[in-house]
Each structure stands twice: as structure tokens, then as C-alpha cells.
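Data's thin. Show one?
=====
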Amino acid sequence: MNFDIRGAVIRNLTGMNSQDLVNLVNDSIQQREEKFLPGLGVLFEVIWKNSPESDKNRMIQTLHDNIPAARS
């Protein structure tokens, strides 16, 4: 079965205001449930595709600084 996760997430977000989006992100992170990860991934994809290189570099640096390095 093929399910369009991106399309479903975007349809669910259509019409939300800024505060709704803030609440959605905060709730998804606080609940720490795996089922929210695809939706957060779609949100990150939208942010990434619509960000200038300077913001992308800052996001990558933030990720790099906050994800532990692989252990040997």
C-alpha cells in the first residue's frame, strides 16, 4: 500500500495560523511518540526547501552541535 504522507501532512496543516503551527510542533516533540516523526520530517522539508543557504548552514551546525558524534 502506498500512502502519500507528505500530501496528508500538508492537507492537515492547510489553514493553520502561526500559533497553531507552534502548538503542533511543541506537542509533537513533547509527546515523544514515533507517529509524529513523519509529520515533523515533512515540516523540516518545507523549511529546508524554503530557506536561504545561510539558514541551512545554521540548521546543519545546530544539528551537528546537538547530536552526539558516532562512537568508535
Q: What stands out?
A: The chain has a mean pLDDT of 90.
